[in-house]
Each structure stands twice: as C-alpha cells, then as structure tokens.
Amino acid sequence: MKILLFSLVLASSFLVSCKKAPPQYPTVYSNDGFLEYSKKFNKQLKDLEDKDIQIYIQKHEEDFLPTNAGFYMTRTEMVNVRNVKDFDTIRFNYQISNMQDSIIYSYDDIGNQLIVMGQTSMIPGIEYGLKRMSEGEYAKLLVPSSLAYGVDGDRKNIGTDEPLVIEINLEDIVNYEK
C-alpha cells in the first residue's frame, strides 16, 4: 500500500510539473505624466536662470558673451594662441559667488589648483571656461545650475539649482613648450 501511495504521489507530481506555465508579460507603466512634468519643470528652471543671468549682465559693466556650452563668459584677450586642452597640466585659482555678488567660496577658501585637464572631477562650467582661456588670462563666468552643482548643490554653501558667478585666473599651462 505504501508503495502504491508513493507511486501515485510521484506520478501526480510529474504530471503537475510538466504543465507549461503561462507566459509572463512585462508590466506596462505609463510615465508620460512624469516626463511631461519633468520637461515643463526644467524649461521653467532654465527660463528663470536665464532671466537671472540677463539681469546680472545688465547690472554689470563687463562684456559677457554667450558660449555654445550654455554659459556666459567675459571676453578673453587671447594673448596666446594656445588655449587649454585635455591632458594639459594647469595652475589656476577661482572664486565662486552667487548672482547677488555675495562670495560663497573665496580664492583663499579654494586655494591654488594644479590639475590635469580632463582628469579631475570639477563642475563642467569651470572646465568649459578653462578650455576657452589661455595662459595668464582672467575670466568671469555666469554658469547655470545645470553646469554647476545642479539639483544637489554642494551640500554646504551652494543651494539647489543655483546659478553661479565664477571668476577664474589661469596662471600657467605647466606642461607645454613655450
């Protein structure tokens, strides 16, 4: 009897296990609402920052030029014909202010920087600005939050979605023949 019961349980388990499972289809989620909200929010943020930057430009004497990277920069003198390129070792310093000209981080707070371009993590606005400068130049950048610290800020003194004024002195391009 035990053998018969065991055989019956074993046979029924084979029959059940051979049954083909129905296909599982991916769950479809609709993100259209979020994507539309995100596009609208980012456009409003960009428009607001552009307005703040234009107000800053109107209140100051410097000659700011728009760049194709999405920030504004004072006209550089282009004393040298050689601009900074990736893998150049450069020496520079900079300070960061808000749109009301309150210094957030001074030259002394940040200190002199010696970096290899393209090999250091820095905000994109500074990197793009340095690549448009040559040795010995000074430039002032008006950087939207998307090219600065973005939605996180720096989690210390720079708030979320804050456009910045960055003043840069490119002291030296260290590793090329003059």
Describe the overall structure.
The structure is a single chain. The protein has 178 residues and is α+β, with helices and mostly antiparallel strands. It has helices at 2-17, 32-59, 107-110, 124-130; strands spanning 64-66, 72-74, 89-97, 103-105, 113-116, 138-143, 164-173. Strands 1, 2, 3, 4, 5, 6 and 7 form a seven-stranded antiparallel β-sheet that branches. The relative contact order is 0.17. The mean pLDDT is 86.
**Distance between the ends:** 99 Å
Main β-sheet, in a few words? 7 strands, antiparallel
Q: C-alpha Rg, in Å?
A: 29 Å
Compute the average pLDDT. 86
Counting H and I runs of at least 4 residues, what is the number of helices? 4
Beta-strand portion reads 15-25%
Q: Topology of this protein?
A:
Blueprint: H1 2-17, H2 32-59, E1 64-66, E2 72-74, E3 89-97, E4 103-105, H3 107-110, E5 113-116, H4 124-130, E6 138-143, E7 164-173
